[in-house]
Structure formats: C-alpha cells, structure tokens
C-alpha cells in the first residue's frame, strides 16, 4: 500500500495554497495572456479599483475593465472611446511600466507591470495613499513598503517555472518551508540578498545565511507561526553585498484539513529606508523640543539676571571701592556675568542668539583659528588646514564661525588625536542628502574638522548636540560647546553632521549657505545727532516683569529721563496716543496679551517718537534689530550699554 503524499508534495495543492495565502495580502494583482484575456486576479484588485465581481472571470477581456473606468469618468474628461482605444493600444505593447495613479476619490495607487515571457503580462496595484500623506506631513518621505505580493490563479494549473517567473518579478523575498523547517521554495530575492541558489534548496539553511545570533533572535516567531499564528517581525540582516538591511518578515502558516500546520509561507521586505527616516524624524523632534525648552529657560533667567546685575551694579556704585564691595559685591557680580555667558550659550543652542551675518571668506577665517590654536596644542599633535586655492564665501557670522571651529578643534584635541585637519571645499547638497540633514539643497561651503582620535560610539553620537551632555571628566567641560555649534549652524541656514566610530576618529562636517552675488547690506542705525542723552526728556518704559521694570526705570532716571511705565503693549499704545511729548520708548519684546514690543515700536515710529529701542531676553527670530532698524538690547545689560543704546534714534 502506498504512503499518502503530504500536501506540500502535491504541486497543484501547493500552488493553490500559495495563491490562497497571497490572496490575504492587500496588494492587487492581475495576470493577462497575450490576447489581453484575464488569466488570474485577486480580490484586492477588484477592491482597490472598485470593480464589480461580474467583470472578473477567466478569459475576461481586459478592455472591459478599461471601458468600465472610462464610462464612469475614471480617466477624467474626454471622449471615452478614444480613452479606451489609447489604453488598449498601450497594453498590447506589453512594455514594463511603473507609475502612480490618483483615483477620483483621492486614493493613490502605484501600478507596476512587467511582461512574463510565454504567458502574458503581470500587473501589481498598491494602495500608497497613506505613504503619500506621510511624505507631505514630515518633509522627509517615510513610506512603509506594503506587501507587494498578491495573486490568485483561479482553477488554472501553473507549472513551477511559470510560478517562478511571477514571484521573481516581485520586489520582495518569497519562500515556503515545511514542518521540518526545510525550504521547499525561494524566489530570486534570496539570491540577490544572500547569494542563495533557488535551484539548490538542499543547501539553504536559515541559521547559516542569517547567522546564529539573528537566527536565535527570530526563532520564537517561527515557533508562534507553527502554533498557527500569523506573525510579523523585524531584524537586521547582513547581505552578500556587505549592506546591513532592516528586514520585515511575515510568516503565514499553512494548515492541513485537520488543522495541523504543515508549513509556512514567508514574505520579507526591505524597510531600511523607512526606519532611517523615522529615526531622523525622532531626532529632529527631540532637538526642536530641547531648543524650545532651552529658549524659554534662557528668557526667564535673563530677566532674573537683569534684576540681579542691575541692583548689584547700583549697590556697587553706592558702596564705592571699599573692602566690603571687593569682598562681597564684586564676586557676586562676576558670578552673575558668568551666568550671562551660560545663558548666551543656551540661546545659541536654541538658535535665538543675535547673529551678525555677512559674506565671509572661509579659508582665512579657518587659517586664523588654526594659527592661534596651534601653539596651545599638545606636543606631537599636528594641526593643519586644507583650504584649496579658490576663495569660498559663505553667508555667516564670522565671529560665531570662529568660535565653532575653536570648539571642534579643542574637542578633537581632547579625543587624544595625533592629527587634526580643517578642510574647506565647495559642495552641493543633493535633494536626498539635504533631506537627511534637514537642510535646503543647493550650493554651499563645506567645512570638515577631521581627527584620528578615539571616536564615539552610537549612543554618544546620538546625544552629542544636547546641552550639558559631555563625556569629559567632571569640571573639564560644560557640555555646551557642540550644542552652541549646532544652534549657530542651524540658525545660519546650514546643516551639521558627525561621522565617527570607536577607534577610527571623528569628522564633524558643516554645510553653510554660499554668499550670493553682491554683499547684503547690514541694517544701519542713524545717530541721534546730539551728545547729550537727555535733559529732562520723557521716557516710556514698557515691561511686564515688575522687578525688571524697577531696575530699568532707575537706570533711565540716572540717565536724566522722567519715566512713564506700562506693563503691557495695549497700555503702552494708549499712552503713546495721549502723550505726544514722549522722547524715548524702551519696550520689552515678549509680553502677555495681543500686542508685543515690536508692534509697540512700530506704533511709536508712526507717532514719530524721536528715540525707539527694544530689549529682550529672548525673542523668536530676533537678529539683533527690531522693525525698521530699531536697535535691540539683550538682557541682562549694564547702565552703560543702555546709555549707548538710547543715544540712537529710530530710523525715519
């Protein structure tokens, strides 16, 4: 008596099972013969294109689907007969194609078709509506590769050669393994990824081509599949070309009539690009949140330091040069001013520090920094510049750029480097690279600070731009150096990136916008024309913080002003409307209520107030000046700085 054959050894049943499993996938599928007659399809095809079931049957003319679409206006306005004739003629050419199509209901379909020699033409339909929506929302396309494998062959008998032609044309890894975990089928994708020969299944071992570590990690998922559960999981796979891909695999169990699992269908996709885009988005969101938090903290501390420094300065003047002033007041003032430097660093990270940008020749700037630092480098450390021959002009704050270079070179020194090289060169940010860096594509100036030091691991690279993060010993660094560099570069409209690994050094790369054509003129502020700041002129002081208002009011009185106060923009504009003799407006920028300091300044200019000035501990988008050339004073400030500021009237 012969032994009954298992389901997997029956070719017809195996193919039917494969088709049934593929029918579970959301991707549409059609196979037509050389006469444009329908050989096979799946239900996703009918659902995605909203076709009635009656249109689909073995041998159905594909022209019928096209005519159905034309009659219901799927192809837009125009003669339906001409639309049908044009598309039928294109179909008869059996040319490979791939395009995206937007249906009237807004659904976006990706259509890919390839000829199958000796059979006809296979077409796959993918709903990519969600992917397109995600690309619009996050500036960085993040598209999950949907399952692309779908086919149903009706009652036709397909040979193994025919099935291979179909599955090999699909951009995914497709396989089947039996209850002994022996592979019975793999498509061409396994050859592309792992160098496996689909004709030598006896040599295919998942443990061997994945490696012991990866195999042990995914084995629990295989166990769940053999328990009857469809599972999806992700893992890292090293391929024959040296690439490490992030793979997403779905296992669909095949069950016999009695419910026993006799094997599994395996579908694998490459989701490396999706994962990389998601990581970039998460990093960008984290840095933006840190920047907002840092900017808000800096604003509040600047107000506090304004009160502290203002009162200590006044107290110091009243105490004179006595011993108590030197012992108590002077150290406190020095500590407060160090706090000002700390807040300035935080504002740098938050991209809210005032910049004095202009067209700057990068090579001389880099050369100056290297020349100054070379003497302070440890013996045996070689510091050099590779600037090329052509001048490179970037639109940047030269002083801030030099500070950034100093920070990066000193970091390289602390990484125990024996060689540090500062390279400058013209570069072009391609759209793909610009998207990775969250920057604007186009020509730029690239500056690399490369060292052969100890390098960084992945965890350090992920946090290197965060404020107060440092790998140096306690007391050896504030952790603000690279965060200042990051904020300066981003505020300048550029990008920054780090390439580093333990044991092979670090390269910090800056991309800065090229200075275009003619020099951009800086905003000029006209002088008041009189040396005397004020006789008994009337000043309007606008500040919502009462402690800050008290300090600034005293400074204005010391400068000879009579002072009228307002605690918000609405009150200030009312005073301006009813007090024409105001000689000076000094207003905070950020205040509660619907009217901010910039609007008050514009109102004062319209009322032709002779002197208009602004002050701020933090103002989004400020660049050192207010509207129409109104000067901006950064909190905290000294009485001398205030005196210098109010000498300048507003521009006409």
Automatic annotation (TrEMBL):
It is an enzyme of class 2 (transferase). GO terms for molecular function: phosphorelay sensor kinase activity. Signal peptide: none annotated. InterPro entries: CheY-like_superfamily, HATPase_C_sf, HATPase_dom, His_kinase_dom, HisK_dim/P_dom, HisK_dim/P_sf, PAS, PAS-assoc_C. Gene3D superfamilies: 1.10.287.130, 3.40.50.2300, Histidine kinase-like ATPase, C-terminal domain, PAS domain. Residues 296-516 form the Histidine kinase domain. It catalyses: ATP + protein L-histidine = ADP + protein N-phospho-L-histidine. Residues 231-283 form the PAC domain. SMART domains: HATPase_c (SM00387), HisKA (SM00388), PAS (SM00091), REC (SM00448). Keywords: Phosphoprotein. Its EC number is 2.7.13.3. Residues 538-650 form the Response regulatory domain. The modification 4-aspartylphosphate is found at residue 588. NCBIfam families: sensory_box. This is histidine kinase.
